[in-house]
Design a protein that fits this description.
By secondary structure, the protein is an all-alpha fold. The chain has helices at 2-39, 43-56, 61-73, 77-89, 97-109, 115-128, 134-141, 146-158, 166-170, 177-190, 196-201, 208-220, 228-233, 239-251, 258-264, 270-283, 289-295, 301-313, 320-326, 332-344, 351-357, 363-376, 378-388, 394-407, 413-419, 425-443.
Length: 444
């Protein structure tokens, strides 16, 4: 009996001695396995392992941190934020954790079955910048949807990475002409001379608009380009070619294009007249103010809208009375463009018209109004964006998130965190992009 008791005591002592060590060892092993699962993108296994680690060692900060990131890649913002908030409550959250969660959420949304959601995620990546987003951007550049690839190319351009990424260079030969156009435009704006050879090949493209964009890109790349091909294209039989050439002439600020663009305001096709009206604003052609004022009476609302916007960009104070007239236009978007131009011209009371349009029955007008306020009067934009945060239309909530991200600074972070939980995935995408950008700025 004494021997059995001694054996039992020895066994208990052994368990007391080895138990904690064995537990710590198992925890370390599980954490390492969780990291390995995360690296191979087995996110479900990583979470199961981390649940075990945290259940055994509730004070393991690194486990909460990793689980928060993994939940982002799983597309689980609520769970990710719960771990983040736990760490924040204890004062142990790493400064870059929210940004890493946002990167994970966008990477997850880039695998969504809806093209519109993947497109929103590709666009939102641009807000985060190039740091730690290369994998997500590479996935977007390979997307089967041409529209998503276009957004990804534009994002690469905004990041200053267009010329450095082989998929963007390859996209200059994409089967889809719009993808080729996006790639050539991004390569041109990169100002990287190494892109010249790729762009030159597009001068022989079967699509005349692609050829025009290639010429524009070469001009941006400091390759001598005569303006004559654009001027000739402005008289092409195709309205699409005429419009594209006028847009390019405006962006290149070619003074010889003034007469062509003014003539374009009288083109029989309304889309060409719209391009001409916008191009005159790009050109900075103050001598075209009278012609643009006349275009405020064009039968097509898009032409009137572009004309109103260009008058503001041209600082055309002589057009203020005409723009006040356009604030009463029958078309909501014309009223919005006129109001924005009036604010640019110092007529601050025009913001009242923008606020009124933020209540328009058309969700497209409401979303445009929120964006317009962010551009024209940032001091008032945050209040309007917060009002739009609960709009029933996802597009309006996206506009609210974008406005907050652009004008709210670090004060926008709590609202953007809330938007990560929005029921619409496109809203969550833009919230992730802007929140990741805001917290990065806050950290710096």
């Amino acid at each position: 009996m004494h021997g059995i008791a001694s054996h039992t005591l020895a066994l208990a002592a052994g368990l007391l001695f080895f138990g904690p060590t064995a537990t710590v060892s198992a925890t370390v092993d599980d954490f390492g396995a969780a990291r390995a699962a995360f690296e191979r993108k087995d996110y479900d296994s990583a979470v199961r392992l981390l649940d075990t680690v945290i259940g055994t060692d509730p004070d393991r900060t690194a486990a909460y941190e990793l689980r928060a990131v993994v939940q982002g890649y799983r597309g689980r913002p609520q769970e990710a934020l719960a771990d983040f908030d736990h760490l924040a409550h204890t004062g142990k959250e790493p400064g870059d954790l929210l940004r890493r969660i946002c990167i994970g959420l966008l990477a997850n949304l880039l695998t969504h079955d809806q093209e519109s959601v993947r497109g929103a995620a590709a666009r939102a990546l641009a807000e985060l910048g190039p740091s730690d987003t290369q994998g997500a951007l590479a996935a977007a550049l390979r997307d089967p949807s041409p529209r998503v690839r276009i957004f990804a190319i534009q994002t690469a351009g905004r990041m200053g990475k267009a010329a450095a990424l082989p998929p963007v260079r390859a996209a200059a030969s994409d089967p889809d002409s719009n993808v080729r156009i996006a790639a050539l435009a991004a390569l041109g704006l990169s100002k990287d001379p190494s892109a010249v050879g790729v762009v030159r090949q597009a001068l022989n493209d079967k699509d005349p608009i692609v050829q025009l964009v290639a010429r524009e890109a070469l001009a941006h790349l400091k390759q001598p380009q005569a303006g004559q091909p654009f001027l000739v294209a402005a008289r092409d039989f195709s309205p699409a070619v005429r419009g594209a050439s006028m847009g390019i002439l405006g962006r290149l600020k070619d003074p010889s294009a003034l007469s062509v663009l003014i003539l374009g305001l009288h083109d029989p096709d309304p889309s060409v007249r719209s391009f001409a009206a916008g191009a005159l604003g790009d050109l900075g052609a103050t001598s075209a103010v009278a012609a643009l004022v006349d275009s405020l009476s064009d039968p097509d609302p898009y032409v009137r809208s572009f004309a109103a916007a260009s008058l503001g960009r041209l600082n055309a104070k002589v057009a203020i009375p005409a723009l006040w007239g356009a604030v009463k236009d029958s078309d909501s978007l014309v009223r919005l463009a006129a109001a924005e131009s009036l604010v640019r011209l110092g007529e601050g009371e025009a913001t009242l018209a923008i606020r009124e349009l933020a209540k328009d029955p058309d969700y497209g007008v409401r979303s445009a109004a929120v964006g317009t306020m962010a551009r024209s009067d940032p001091s008032r934009a945050m209040a309007l964006a917060l009002e739009a945060f609960d709009d029933p239309a996802p597009r309006v909530r996206v506009a609210a998130v974008q406005a907050l991200g652009r004008v709210g600074g670090k004060t926008a972070a709590p609202y953007l965190k809330r938007a990560l939980l929005d029921k619409d995935p496109t809203v969550r995408a833009f919230a992730a992009g802007h929140l990741g950008a805001v917290v990065a700025v806050k950290k710096r």
